[in-house]
Amino acid sequence: MKRGTVSAIINLVEPSEQLTPLTTARPVGMLPFGGRYRLLDFPLSSAVNAGIQNVMVTTPRSGRSVSDHLRSGRDWGLDTVGGGLFMYPYNDLNLIAPEKKQSLIHHYYDNTILFLKRSHSDYSVVMSTRNVGNIDLKALIRYHEERDNPVTTVYKSVDPASLTPKNTILQLTDKGMATAVVPTAKAKLSKGAKKGAKNMDIYLMSTVDLIEILQDANRRGDIISLEELMKQAVMQHNANAFEYTGFHANVHDLKSYFQANMAILEEANFRALFYSSRRIYTKVKNEIPTFFAEGSQFRASLCGTGGYIEGQVDHSVIFRNVLINRGSQIKDAVIMQGTRIGAGTKIENVIIDKNAVIGPNLVLKGTPDNPLVISKGQHIFRQAEVVTSE
Amino acid sequence: MNNEMLGIILAGGQGTRLGKLTKGTAKPAVPFGGRYRIIDFTLSNCANSGVDSVGVITQYQPLELNAHIGNGASWGLDNLHGGVTVLQPYSSSEGEKFFEGTAHAIYQNIEYIDQQNPKYLLVLSGDHIYKMDYDAMLSYHKAKKASLTVGVIPVSKEEAKRFGMMNTDETDRIIEFEEKPEHPKSDKASMGIYIFNWPTLRDYLMKSYATDKSLEDFGKNVIPSYLAHNESVYAYAFKGYWRDVGTIQSLWQANMEFLSPHNRLNIGDQNWRIYSKAEVLPPMFLTETSQVNNSMIVDSCYVAGEVDHSILSQRVSVGMGSRVVDSMVMPGATIGKNVVIDHALIGEEAVIGDDAIVQGSADEIAVVGYNEVVGVEKP
Fold it and tell me: Where in this chain does the record put each Glucose-1-phosphate adenylyltransferase/Bifunctional protein GlmU-like C-terminal hexapeptide domain (chain B) (predicted)?
């Protein structure tokens, strides 16, 4: 593919309420995932693996954590000539003062239009970050080029029983075209349907068409999200529907976030996501090797570097720089970077955010459907401080 | 460009005493400690000491080393005023610039050094494991108004027989140099680390190579010549952890020391980090059947067997029923099922077939070379 043919917009303005407290101080796209990644790394890696060099990242607020992670884009090969990474912060309309909002009518999409015009690309792909996967965007572009519809969208075929009301699905015609993107609850799934087309929130179209969609929205004075515009585009035009067949997990609430992490502990999923010919890139860190002490037991689990493991860990995702003291028992847990677990503490079905300190001889217990969540930087030293999830 | 002190890392040696491990690569590129290569320690010391112009002189099998160093970004050495330059021998109207000894290597790269125009030249080896502040050594060099400062490390009488020994007066001025003495008079062994006043060294080298070409090696020729001409040569005592990893035995030993949480190297010290070219790889995966004790493991390892008091580097896999004990396994090695690896160094991308045994001992470490295949039956 010729250099500069495709540009990408990765949209971090996504619903985050169901993921609090993990999303109190970060957008969904910055959620740590899989031992060393952020959700944003997956669409970003897909883009660069397809040779895309013009990438726009829109963030709801200041995007401090996003800039910290991406910096110049070097770790994704995006600090390059004729392209690179473009950050657009403060896109969350709920945070905008009414006066400011007034002035944004007819101008809300100006930055995006400017980015697209300057990219001189033929095609643009719009992606979200709450769908973990490793998609071959080159194949998506070929699929699009071979068909007539102006928009191509992407789905993962799943067992309808696995869909929750919060998931969105593509309404497909007999010929496999998408006519709408709707929440499962509102979808007209025929009773005996064996497959549901789970929406991946990926939209591909010509850059000219996307600019037109945005200019139209500006003219109408529509201040709705980019994602809404994409869904409208699918409805207006009927879209090609591309089936993605790799590992996929949708993260929309605490349970689905927890399950997505547990899912990659299955070796087949882990390999499909991380060991295809398309690598997942992330910010490079210089951690030391992880040390497993005498008497430690670390099984069926993932671990980042920089860790110090003395206790027992089973079926868990342990991020970088985690300290697990002697005699502790950890099972079905997601423990993010920099967290320390005291000696003799028992943990099961728990998500622990970054840099938390959990004292010795405590019991932290959630359920698979309702994992207990410990917030970023929280220090817990007494059992009474463990707030079980309501 | 005018940098006060330019660092030169001598990374051209073949490292013949590392046998199979350096058959296809330069010694400084040999993996160490799970996620490093030997030269990372020296490069990181430069970066941490604020020596941000560094020339790396290569000669023997440089490709892996070149790929590792790249533009120096991994060490923050891709800066605006210097950075890392990999120096390969090249040809000129005077002939080809291959070199024989350490001082000759500097002479052959005099054009690069002149380009940088430093006041002081810091000469380093690329094959030592240590953390050292070269800026502190430079302050000492200036305070002593020295022409040459030699980094020294205390060694026992027995060890002294393997080193160049510096005999000093009460002000630490070096009055005598003895190469591998039978009866050492001091405990100050040269670490092969020097700070020279560049204009002075330049004069010595130019004169020598215009006449008898005698200044081939720093230890053997330059230091004695400096002493004979009454230059002020001082010893700078380094008290930290320092290991020369020039032999199979010492490389294995230093790796085993690295494993200890109490190792004096203090690899986890955030104020003096050791950087390396970090490949972005998935996290390590330890399966249901793994049993890991007293060991260090890094990204992209896959462990289904037992690992005891060993280091696994990136992308190493250990199959079910296998046992890796007192060993260091280099990146990309694949260890099959029911394998025994004991007291061994396993080279990069080596393949150890099912049921194979690689058995060494504390006195004789077993070595499997790069890409070597052990115990896989040919179809």
Answer: 289-358
